[in-house]
Amino acid sequence: MANEEDDPIIQEIDVFLARSLLEKLYLFQYPIRPASMTYDDVTHLSAKIKPKQQKVELEMAIDTLNPNYCRSKGEQIALNVDGTCTDETSTYSSKLMDKQTFCSSQAASNVSRYAAAVYKKGELHLTPLHGILQLRPSFTYLDKADAKHREREAANEGGDSSQDEAEDDVKQITVRFSRPETEQARQRRVQSYEFLQKRQAEEHWVHLHYYGLKDSRSEHERQYLFSQGHGLAENTELIKSPSEYLMMLMPPSIDEENDKPMAPSNVLSMAQLRTLPLADQIKILMKNVKVMPFANLMSLLGSGTDSTAVLRCVQQVALLVQGNWVVKSDVLYPKDTSSPYSGVPAEVLCRGRDFVMWKFTQDRWVVRKEVAAVTKLCPEDVKDFLEHMSVARINKGWEFMLPYDEDFVKKHPDIVQRQQMLWMGIQAKLEKVYNLLKEHLAPKKQEAQSAHPLLVSGEQRVNMAKAKVKQNYGQLETELQRQKAELKSNNTTAKTDVPSIRIKEEPVDAEEPMDTSAFGGLNNGLVNGLHGAEGCAEPVNGHLPGGCGDRVVQELKAFVSSTFRKQFVLTLSELKRLFNLHLASLPPGHTLFSGISDKMLQDMVLDTGCKQILVPFPPQTAASPDELKVYALWEAGDTYDQHRQVLLEIFSKNYRVRRNVIQSQLSQECGEDLNKQEVDRVLK
């Protein structure tokens, strides 16, 4: 007790478990770098990996202009490796050792105890590591130099002999047939070192593309280090109930388990289901039901279940489609599985099913032929996708099986917003994979979502229209009488107070009263296509009420400034994508959720010291208007401001320029000769 009093608790930090990069996150341990090498974006030339062996090779550049670099030794090594002639197979094309290869080895066989941690805003997010790899220099170029030396010696020795001596005599050849291999001999051969080395050499290298620290793709991937939906409630994976702790401390004996009646492997009773953790319960239910409203899910989980925890767990295994939850494709088609109909791998099936789910976010109806034409999958697989979440209607297509859950959308606008961000990312991936056309992306015009589709005759429609007109006419008549009474009272007051002023009264048409419902048809609660949070003030005509505008401007300016400090040139399309990612990482109720229009975003870019670069793209380009708007940071306060401005002026005259033209123009405008690495940094 005395020790605890001397060491009080200063702060409690919430810990979350992120699962998005569960089997994809590796830790690379670089060696202590020499003075002539820096591990930055420019030095990473190429990378490749053997996934099964967890083996990586990185090729990194060496700064040959560094004063610590020995140029004579670099030239000698290049001469020993490649010889005097240089061709495409040469290791060092510049006749100088200007790069170094690093090979990896596993630092630990069991990495289950290690995780990568990110601390942000009083929260600690942990992602388990899939592997820890130590990078060490590779000296295979020395083996190549030895091979070259032996070839030269063999050529010198063979040159002295005459052609007659070089001719081989005819020799008798004895042919032998090997005996059948026994099982024991085969096992010894399989376990031998030579066989294992051969198997490892047979695995093909997978070439990788390196993205720097400030690249937008790197920022996008870093978002996966945070637990999805961490702002909703505490992470229940790290919290156990008393009964679960008791089960872990005192598991049931083997005799008790044997006494239980046997059930089929694919059948799980509700009693057995409720003994599992909440995340596993939701995963099993969604995997079996596939499409479910949130209210039905809560009823199956039993009374007393925290709805906030359920919301956080269901987002890990399902996606929101028309207010209902649909199980994710990777839950139905795990990795290393294939289609029972066509044998297509799980990755292709997941893309096709995601396309069907995305189509249902755009419309209630989907045509099977259209899905098959885009995904190029067999009809059985496409039908399997559609049967998961829709019902076939004769001569119409496939209709989503559940009605639009408007209650859930109104109660949880933050969840809806976050899911829309996820669907935007899925749509971007589908556009690249399937090369979707505009008719695929544009949602079809449809009436308001209804709970049940109804067939209404023409006479019924006329009667409904008449009843609606009578109802509206009564309301308008009452409103008109009220306005006339107010107008009379105002005129009487004005004549009493200011008798010398005559107010001209305009005639009021009694048959066509003015609609005085303020913005009744304009304000539909949508801002940039997203539902605003309940209770937040809506922007009217681009202006924010109260003091909310100053806070929004400050937050938006901070985002734009930090973004252009990391990436000096951005298109409007890329800037909007980064802004949507930024919104997804913000907590619910943040001021930026009040609605930011495209014009406000562009004005803020110009106010933060950026300029629009009018790049003359070719007229036949397929880029969207947002991709043709290019903005650049004009002054960053570093040593490359003048070079960057000259480079932007060059690209404002032509969208494609040769490197030697850029280098000569930079040298001419800046009055100094730039080497290759300095030009690379400016272009980067």
From TrEMBL:
Q: Name one Pfam family in it.
A: RPC5_C
Show the ranges annotated as biased composition (Basic and acidic residues).
146-155
Q: Give the residues annotated as coiled coil.
A: 466-497
- Indicate the segments forming the DNA-directed RNA polymerase III subunit RPC5 C-terminal domain, all copies: 444-684
Q: Might you name a Gene Ontology BP term for this protein? A: tRNA transcription by RNA polymerase III
Q: State the InterPro entries in the record.
A: RNA_pol_III_Rpc5, RPC5_C
Q: Where is this region: Disordered?
A: 146-169
Name of the protein in its database record: RPC5 polymerase
From the UniProt record, report the name of the gene that encodes this protein.
Polr3e
Q: Which UniProt keywords apply?
A: Coiled coil
| GO CC annotation | RNA polymerase III complex
